[in-house]
Design brief:
Layout lengths: L15 H14 L8 H16 L6 E5 L6 H7 L3 E5 L14 E7 L8 H10 L1 E12 L5 H11 L13 H10 L4 E13 L2 H10 L15 H11 L9 E13 L1
């Protein structure tokens, strides 16, 4: 069977320059021992559990996007030959320079303009029988923040939170990319916040803040006051607000 190119038009949703800048800011913020890491802790734990479940033998591995720097040393301690890359050094929307037994992507897949093409390139970057695991935020993420920014913007709303991928769409994209077999799972993390500013800081710490190509205007002081006011009705009995992070795990084999 001859494999032809996947034809599609590439939307302009995200800014690659803002994506790279966000990654560098997160790397710098991770230098603070109190920086939030819980989303990446969960992603890394899931990757390692999948390696254990599939009895993955050591092999050449590319880790993309781990701002915490925790996955590479863990894999090396298990005998894997590991390279690390970020969006500043690797364009996931272009062919990879070499092939690997494993390609692991943490927290970046959902901010690509050409996601179908990127998945094809990731598959082509796998050796025969190789495995890709990508972890990213899914469609159930940040419902509380969505409500808050709507209140803050008032009658004239702006796109401030990224469009997100749900499980059926992710599964369809994996099949379309031509993986020999694929699995898409999702799970939910919940975090509790007493202050809106802490939620925003946690997103920035982990490189999860907005990078839309058409950047919305910055909050004015009145808008920030409205945002904080919009945060108040979401408080539960203990005075805190629950925010939700849906994590998608996309696993595919060449």
């Amino acid at each position: 069977m001859t494999e032809g190119p996947i034809e599609h038009s590439v939307p302009r949703i995200f800014s690659p320059a803002r994506r790279r800048a966000r990654y560098h800011r997160a790397l710098a913020r991770q230098g603070d021992q109190d920086a939030a890491r819980f989303v990446f802790d969960d992603m890394i734990e899931d990757v390692l559990e999948r390696f254990d479940f599939t009895r993955a033998e050591p092999g050449s591995t590319l880790v993309i996007g781990d701002v915490t720097g925790q996955l590479v040393p863990e894999l090396r301690s298990r005998g894997f030959e590991v390279e690390s890359a970020g969006p500043d050094g690797l364009d996931e929307e272009q062919p990879f320079p070499r092939t690997y037994r494993y390609v692991l992507n943490l927290g970046l897949l959902d901010t690509l303009n050409d996601l179908p093409g990127a998945l094809v390139h990731a598959r082509h970057a796998l050796e025969p029988g190789g495995m890709m695991i990508a972890q990213c935020l899914g469609a159930g993420t940040l419902p509380a923040l969505r409500q808050v920014v709507q209140v803050a913007d008032g009658a004239r709303t702006y796109a401030r939170i990224h469009p997100q991928i749900d499980r059926p769409a992710a599964s369809g994209l994996m099949s379309r990319a031509g993986f020999a077999k694929q699995v898409v799972d999702s799970r939910v993390l919940r975090a509790r916040y007493g202050e809106l500013g802490r939620l925003i800081a946690d997103l920035r710490d982990q490189g999860l803040a907005g990078i839309l190509a058409d950047a919305p205007p910055a909050f004015t002081r009145p808008a920030w006051a409205r945002a904080q006011a919009g945060f108040e009705p979401l408080r539960e009995e203990d005075g805190k607000v629950t925010e939700t992070f849906e994590i998608l795990s996309l696993t595919g084999w060449s």
